[in-house]
């Protein structure tokens, strides 16, 4: 034990909140509880046999592959167990959100002591298809921690929004705190509304490693926090408490001295006294846990589908544009719209107005904006996973900033035994095809590439071509459960093709009608090749294209089929898809200007010398290039239309759009 | 003007550094420079004709689509122009890194005043294939800002690492500061080494909007910073300075009153006096700029390929494992290894040792670790874009956290007129196929999906199957320029298939040999179907599979062809690829235990009641399930081998691996 004890850096507890609420007997009880928790954590990491150390420890009792981070367990255990006291005393509704990586031993030890797990517990830890070494989606009381670090704070806030009586006891890992996801989520406290969400108290600090004073300090701090209702206690004071953060002794199976140290260490937690022969904790320990309806390890909030109430849905057929507005107004404690500072830019700014009936929509904070895709997505996840509904609106070119988060929640939504939560809805605007003014860097469809490879049971992609179709799709998405719905709809003004009834029909069929430029292209084709027969298909539900064996929305072979998505389709060879392709080269601005015959700017000789391609052409040639003056062709831009095709179409067929809107099939 | 002036929130300058270094005449000169800069910024946003306002402003002089964020321009202009003073005075080598979104008017106005751009300047701004409204990759002096916010701090630090004489003048946007990328990058200052990188001074604050005192304060502050050599000045004090952050007046073309206000506003900057008839700034303004070799707008650092020196490369054929160690040791000021806290875990920990010759490798900080993929990637980008070499090592399951950043630098590397920089090398370990202990959430190959769609000229994917092949691939990647090399190599111990010479041959061919499980699968197949003819192909260079028309590494049709990648290949129908497929369902832990006949844990009745699938089966059934005890089959795990296939193979063919390593083709 000397090796372990020698590195204690702290000593007696120092804490913000003073007090000694525990009696001598209670300190002993909590000390036992802490010992039992530590014992269980070590047992999960090391033991596959001899779980209670009733026999001397031998190398063959040990697991071969040692996993789990012991260093991150102690602080979490100490926080969890001491918060059980205020839970019992004040009948609090609390959930535990574990941020540190591979910290499952902490959570699982508490779950075991609450009586949720029993038998074969050590052996199953971190074993393929057993219990994960971090709080996996399958971990019962976990809101979810997924291996990718950084979600804890935004998830915690998402969980307590509109849940004034819920306490999210949140542990932030020291490594996690360095991630982009977490670093920006600290702003979340600015978004808590004291009326609908309750207040957040300033953090309280507890540090030390002297067991008795630590129990007093933790009990005093957490009782104070619990009674006054904070939403957060963050805590990583245990860094450095033991020598190693992960597995403290890595070679006990082969090093007899280390095996001896490990055995002494484990026995110091007194498993003989604290667990009965069957491995159950002794009654005095169980008595420190709340009643089962208040166990943090099985709080219904962490299985939020159980609490989900359907949205009150206005009839979308009655609406032109203000549908979302009324969805928000009718569900002020059950729906939120999140967005990274683009809500106004994305033409949803109308929703910021005050309710004309004098309501407190603005105060209730149903629309939340912060320029962090990570935090907005995390908020939305916490909000829906705890049983509510929501929508993230963002900008298609940069949504792939959070594609890893979408990947992770997709995995959570697939845990079949959980109650179904509301769908995670993402509305993407500013499609990549209309980024000619922003240019190359705003052009990337990579997010859909990622999404298209995800599980058919969870992923949905909708591409409504006009406002009425968008209404129909949004209505469907808000009513749906347990999907990730990606809805893409450009924010610029567009033509209206379909009446509301036609739109419903088209969206139900999933595959129909058309978009601007394809129509304009058809017009040009028909001018030049009048004998051509053209059928223009717009796909609202992208997964209609896949084989029905691979996605439940897939049409049967008789009905329809696009290359990669249409693999296994008859006739797929006759179909050619022209999608986004990364440009090969970017020329100098000057060369571009010459090639495109456009009216551009000039560069100084100094600047041109700075470019290797031009540097070698000689001063005269460079001078000549420099002075090249080219005629302008800025027409399309000046009209405000990005697309010359569209301009041509409207000039050619002015007034004809209404007819097309009646139904393309009739052409 | 009243509308503009009425919202000034600040008043006279308040600043950390006091002083009045400017004479009355100098204040007037800098005021003129500031006016000219503001005028150019407004002109870029609004004007397509009548650029110098020699005629009264009319609606048809205005652009139809107004783009550019004026609000973010003023602070940047003020910082840039006042830093020209210390640059001139002390002959400083400085680069300007612009973080705020759509802030190009600030940078471009300075570039114009330095004489780098001239003619047709306003008209080309934010026009398709013209000058971008943010500091695009094409923007001359831009290290690069790409629309996706958040890169400025990590890029700035990457640029000054091992550049003790360089000053990166960095502007952080207020929106940018909320992004995950930026929020975590503030830790970068902890990583600057005062010996090799120089020191960073604490930030200095300047705020106010009274022009004269602001000029004095900015001059005093920046002269102080410049003289003492800071690396950063961050500055977003202008938020709120004008009413609007983006385009301040949005409807001057249709609102005559607003047109009048705009004209008065623009004329207040005195374009008649500050620009000659051809639009050139008057000589007294040009005199405030540094000589052309010190212009921040064309600093060679921002075109870092110009400064790139090849690495000193040891002969990799002489090495077993320590190759990378010696690359680092031989290039201590020209190479860095970056990683998100996984360098030790990824078996590169040996590199942390002290140089045995007593060198100061550790002090020089050639290996940098922080648990932020965003910051590590940003550092690497800044480091190579400013002319050096580096490697990011990370963990395949979570590399897609930064796939948006990889997408963006790919676009930068394609700007053909820039000097070529060293390749961006990413070494990925912990492949998804070996995540059975971590489970489902660590399994996702989405990063390669994204990368495989990127430009063939830039993207390279290498999958070396053993250590010698890895050496050969790394040697190639470190010598290469202007690529993004993704190298995937599992961190666990593996079999060695090839001698070093065979490895070079195989890696040069790009497509050859095999991996563990496919070999084991072949063995099983041959046991059960001895008549089968099997050819096992391992692909080191993934792009060998694409048609040569689509990627320069593509093999010709005679040589070879995998489904999506082999589109257009003859015989592609006979090839079946079995890749990663997201699992359909996750069962309850209990059901999994029953199905897999494994020895798992049990759950309490409370916990089972919490799962809707089990809740409805009745107490007796639940009790029965709860008590189900199943025999164990933990063999594979206990051996330390994850793969039962592998175990079978080594048992069946013990000792045969060497023969296979001599060349699979001979089977």
Automatic annotation (TrEMBL), chains A, B:
Domain Xylulose 5-phosphate/Fructose 6-phosphate phosphoketolase C-terminal: 559-651
Similarity comment: family membership: Belongs to the XFP family.
Record PANTHER family: PHOSPHOKETOLASE-RELATED (PTHR31273)
One Pfam match: XFP
Stated name of the protein: XFP N-terminal domain-containing protein
Keyword Membrane part of the UniProt annotation: no
GO molecular function: aldehyde-lyase activity
Transferase found in the keyword field: no
Higher taxonomy: Eukaryota, Fungi, Dikarya, Ascomycota, Pezizomycotina
InterPro entries: THDP-binding, Transketo_C/PFOR_II, Xul5P/Fru6P_PKetolase, Xul5P/Fru6P_PKetolase_C, Xul5P/Fru6P_PKetolase_N, Xul5P/Fru6P_PKetolase_ThDP_BS
Cofactor(s) for this UniProt protein: thiamine diphosphate
Keywords from the named record: Lyase, Thiamine pyrophosphate
């Amino acid at each position: 034990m000397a090796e372990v004890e020698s590195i204690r850096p702290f000593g007696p507890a120092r804490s913000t909140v003073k007090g000694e609420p525990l009696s001598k007997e209670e300190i002993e009880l909590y000390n036992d509880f802490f010992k039992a928790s530590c014992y269980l954590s070590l047992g999960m990491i090391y033991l596959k046999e001899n779980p209670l150390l009733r026999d001397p420890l031998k190398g063959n009792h040990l697991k071969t592959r040692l996993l789990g981070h012991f260093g991150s367990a102690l602080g979490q255990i100490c926080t969890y167990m001491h918060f059980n006291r205020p839970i019992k005393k004040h009948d609090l509704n609390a959930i535990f959100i574990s941020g540190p990586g591979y910290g499952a031993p902490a959570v699982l030890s508490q779950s075991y002591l609450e009586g949720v797990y029993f038998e074969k517990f050590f052996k199953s830890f971190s074993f393929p298809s057993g219990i994960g070494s971090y709080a996996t989606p399958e971990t019962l009381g976990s809101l979810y921690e997924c291996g990718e670090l950084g979600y804890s704070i935004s998830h915690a806030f998402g969980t307590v929004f509109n849940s004034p009586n819920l306490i999210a006891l949140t542990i932030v890992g020291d490594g996690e705190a360095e991630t982009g996801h977490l670093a920006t989520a600290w702003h979340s406290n600015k978004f808590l509304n004291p009326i609908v969400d309750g207040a957040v108290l300033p953090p309280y600090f507890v540090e030390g490693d002297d067991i008795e004073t630590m129990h007093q300090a933790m009990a005093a701090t957490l009782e104070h926090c619990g009674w006054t209702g904070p939403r957060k206690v963050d805590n990583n004071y245990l860094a450095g408490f033991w020598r190693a953060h992960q597995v403290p002794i890595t070679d006990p199976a082969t090093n007899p001295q280390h095996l001896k140290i490990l055995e002494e260490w484990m026995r110091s937690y007194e498993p003989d006294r604290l667990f009965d022969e069957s491995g159950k904790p002794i009654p005095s320990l169980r008595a420190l846990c709340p009643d089962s309806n208040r166990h943090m390890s099985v709080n219904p909030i962490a299985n939020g589908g159980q609490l989900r109430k359907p949205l009150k849905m206005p009839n979308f057929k009655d609406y032109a544009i203000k549908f979302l507005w009324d969805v928000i107004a009718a569900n002020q404690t059950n729906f939120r719209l999140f967005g990274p500072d683009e809500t106004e830019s994305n033409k949803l700014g109308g929703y910021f107005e005050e309710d004309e009936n004098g309501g407190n929509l603005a105060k209730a904070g149903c629309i939340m904006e912060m320029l962090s895709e990570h935090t907005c997505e995390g908020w939305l996840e916490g909000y829906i996973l705890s049983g509510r509904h929501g929508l993230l609106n963002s900008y298609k070119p940069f949504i792939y900033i959070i594609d890893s988060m979408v990947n992770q929640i997709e995995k959570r939504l697939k845990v079949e035994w959980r109650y179904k939560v509301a769908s995670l809805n993402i509305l993407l605007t500013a499609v990549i095809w209309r980024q000619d003014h922003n240019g190359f860097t705003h052009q990337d469809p990579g997010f859909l590439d990622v999404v298209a490879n995800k599980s058919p049971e969870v992923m949905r992609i909708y591409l409504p071509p006009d406002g009425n179709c968008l209404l129909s799709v949004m209505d469907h998405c808000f009513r749906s459960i347990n999907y990730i719905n990606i809805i893409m709809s450009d924010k610029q003004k567009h033509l209206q093709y379909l009446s509301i009834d036609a739109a419903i029909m088209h969206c139900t069929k999933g595959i129909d009608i058309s978009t601007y430029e394809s129509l304009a292209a058809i017009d040009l084709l028909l001018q030049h090749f009048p004998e051509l027969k053209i059928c223009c298909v717009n796909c609202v539900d992208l997964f209609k294209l896949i084989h029905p064996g691979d996605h439940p929305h897939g049409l049967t072979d008789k009905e329809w089929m696009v290359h990669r998505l249409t693999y296994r389709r008859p006739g797929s060879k006759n179909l050619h898809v022209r999608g986004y392709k990364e440009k090969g080269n970017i020329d100098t601005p000057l060369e571009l200007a010459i090639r495109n015959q456009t009216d551009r700017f000039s560069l100084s000789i100094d600047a041109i010398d700075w470019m290797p391609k031009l540097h070698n052409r000689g001063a005269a040639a460079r001078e000549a290039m420099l002075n090249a003056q080219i005629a302008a062709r800025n027409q399309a831009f000046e009209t405000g239309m990005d697309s010359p095709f569209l301009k041509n179409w409207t000039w050619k067929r002015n007034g004809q759009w209404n007819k097309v809107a009646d139904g393309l099939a009739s052409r």
